[in-house]
Amino acid sequence: MANAATTESKAAWHDGWWRRARRCRSPNFGPRPEACAITLALIHSISLPPGEYGGDGVERLFTNRLDWDAHPYFQSIRGTQVSSHFFIRRDGEILQFVSCDDRAWHAGRSHWQGRDDCNDFSIGIELEGLEGETFERVQYAALARLLQAVAARYPLRHVAGHEHVAPGRKQDPGPGFDWPALQAELQWPDAAFAALA
């Protein structure tokens, strides 16, 4: 992944915001622990309502503007305050909600390679989709571009799914996510995908 530093210069970033993503600020974030290196990219999947794509439900959820009465499912998540750094829509559009220099609220109770609280040292990337279902080819291409940009700016070492850091509690992105396709797109070593070993 060291070669990723030549893929995209640091000029593509400003205060943790990637210039190629549409900025949509979330109030749901906090500071990272002091001197905490960002070493993990954590892949999630989400759609609101579940299985429905193309709407603004996820954007509204992450910005605390979701109308809890707009759909019966929303009652089950009423009052939830969450965020992710990035969200990749089915058409490949990338939105950014939280500066990567800050701690987004995406992993919850989690553990990775001897460390708890993955939010402290990870970047959360949500894909519009449903766990167990497949994702679009343009989403993989967008995800690969984003991961290359992140690796050019931060000391990223691993990519894992929410299911890998919170087994039994979370199942996303799920069996429909094509990890070999992502690795082939990135041309990163097996060590970067330690969760799959």
Form type: globular
What helical percentage do the residues reach?
10-25%
Strand content: 15-25%
Record the strand order, biggest sheet. 3-7-6-11-5-12
What would the CATH topology be?
Answer: Lysozyme-like
Can you tell me about this structure?
There is one protein chain. The chain is of the alpha/beta class and 197 residues long. The chain has one domain: Lysozyme-like, CATH 3.40.80.10. The protein has helices spanning 57-62, 137-153, 162-165, 179-186; strands at residues 13-14, 17-18, 22-23, 29-31, 40-46, 86-88, 94-96, 102-104, 111-112, 115-116, 122-128, 158-161. The strands form 4 sheets. It has a 6-stranded mixed beta sheet. The protein has a two-stranded antiparallel sheet with strand order 1-2. A two-stranded antiparallel ribbon has the order 4-8. Helix 2 (137-153) crosses helix 4 (179-186).
Defining traits:
4 helices, alpha/beta, 18% helix, 197 residues, 20% strand, globular, Lysozyme-like, six-stranded mixed sheet, disordered N terminus
Write the SSE topology:
Blueprint: E1 13-14, E2 17-18, E3 22-23, E4 29-31, E5 40-46, H1 57-62, E6 86-88, E7 94-96, E8 102-104, E9 111-112, E10 115-116, E11 122-128, H2 137-153, E12 158-161, H3 162-165, H4 179-186
Parallel strand pairs: 3-7, 5-11, 5-12, 6-11
Antiparallel strand pairs: 1-2, 4-8, 6-7, 9-10
Helix pairs in contact: 2-4
